[in-house]
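Support case: user asked for a sample of complex input and structure output to validate their parser. Sending the pair below.
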Amino acid sequence: MSNQQVIIAELPTDSLEPRHFALQDVPMPQAGPNEVLLKVLLMSIDAANRSWMQGATYRAAVNAGDAMPTYAICEVVESNTSRVAVGDIVACEAVWANYITQPGHKVIKMPKVPTLSNLISVFGIAGKTAFHGLMTIGQPLAGETVLVSAAAGSVGGYVGQIAKALGCHVVGIAGGPDKCRWVVEALGFDACIDYREPGLTKALRRVCPGGVDVYFDNVGGEILESALFSMNERGRVVCCGAISQYDGGAPSGPRNLPGLVVVKRLRMEGFIVTDFVKDDAKATRALQHWVSTGQIKVFEDIVDGLENAPQALIGLLAGDNKGKRMVRVAPDPS
Amino acid sequence: MSNQQVIIAELPTDSLEPRHFALQDVPMPQAGPNEVLLKVLLMSIDAANRSWMQGATYRAAVNAGDAMPTYAICEVVESNTSRVAVGDIVACEAVWANYITQPGHKVIKMPKVPTLSNLISVFGIAGKTAFHGLMTIGQPLAGETVLVSAAAGSVGGYVGQIAKALGCHVVGIAGGPDKCRWVVEALGFDACIDYREPGLTKALRRVCPGGVDVYFDNVGGEILESALFSMNERGRVVCCGAISQYDGGAPSGPRNLPGLVVVKRLRMEGFIVTDFVKDDAKATRALQHWVSTGQIKVFEDIVDGLENAPQALIGLLAGDNKGKRMVRVAPDPS
């Protein structure tokens, strides 16, 4: 067994590039008392990876020389704890590597599911982020209009499908005509606007004639600004991410803020998926139900090979994924 | 009896100036069936007056040729309704004029108080806006830090005094050393920062060493941006106004938004005082209590004469008032 990891060779000051990463041979880690040795199977690739390189957020900053942190699905290879046994599948904080160790109390044993990747997509961070943000902060009602940016992305696709299942009018925003068509045809949104075309504010008015009640914001910047113009009184803005602001360039704030927040009595609220751990079982139950009825379709964008993780992240930031992106480091155990 | 009114002669495209207004002789209005003829005694002067000139908000836009709308305290001069009698003091929507008429159901009979101007300041829009915004949206707890911009203004001064009464650490932001001293010495804030000095973000860190839990935002713009940097996790931003954005110049949005809203899980929410009419009695009871204990001191900035209303508003936008600004159109009836 050999072990490799991907470290940050140099912190980016502008757009992320392959040269900011390095693949290294490292010694196989040793599981100490109460620890487990884990084989990394699947790593979640998230826009948040990039934001961690900008400084301390809800976690410590990632610095040059560090292995990139990640949420991962792993197989237990060696266990010095009674919590999990060899062969168990667990979810945990990991790094971009083949093997890692963790204290036994920091890994969560996963149910056996037919497709392990679902533990990262619909039943993992993506699905739970969509569910908790939409239900707890957005609180959409049947008949209301829900607008979702990064609609072809991992979270946005589930937000829209959940909102459809709840009886809402659902409009997406995505980049390019292909993605927009896919959002409508594959994910079942009522409409999808291409933000690369000029006139986003007008286009939103056309496809949301009754205004927007809930805007699920994954991007920030000018798209947030346009969305605010379309909001109805007492609308809710679910602040989930700001991908447009992570990867270089001067940040641009929505210029109509806070004016429109006052006039329309809007509520904007941020969250992190782990804030709602206590409701995770509820989320899983609902998501399983909608998957079983076909109201939620699962799309995954799996890149093979640890060495391809940097490019998978760079591509995600450029918007070239459809559905939840992840890296398969090792095949599912049979 | 003669009647005059102040109209908008020309809508401003940049800063408001006296030439945008005109004083006109107009006929004495006639009270029709179920209407009342009212003598305007006191008119509230608010930053919102300026925002109404920018287009439709929560009310129709104010246009050239219109008399400026205002909230006013009036004396009933003639009554064709059983709801109020001649000599009653009422609050209502009015315009900048000596006399107006209103349907009987649109005026609210006021209690007899020793000082009528208190019905516009602490027991009027200013006090109620402070109370409802702080209590319902800000929800401060004893020991938390409350930051208030436009702290020497009508609303901000009450926000800080209420927060002190609740046991909070209270910090103001105001323009110029005189106002800042007044906010601390007269209103009892723990500290007050002069936003005209460079280094607001650093200054906030110094006087709010534990971070800010509630920011009551009356101004928007760069001050909001600085405040967001100081917010604690799960902090609340009460969006009450955006005076910095009303009077000319290109709007500037907080560049750290929505990034910090996500990372810190902030909640930003706008409101208008009339949203909380159902809780007005509760507000009045609490404000009366704090005034009676001396925990709230009432400061009013009264300008005499209808003809001086334009300058009173222009000065308010430039920040030259301490406490609630109003115009006395006619003396209190004895």
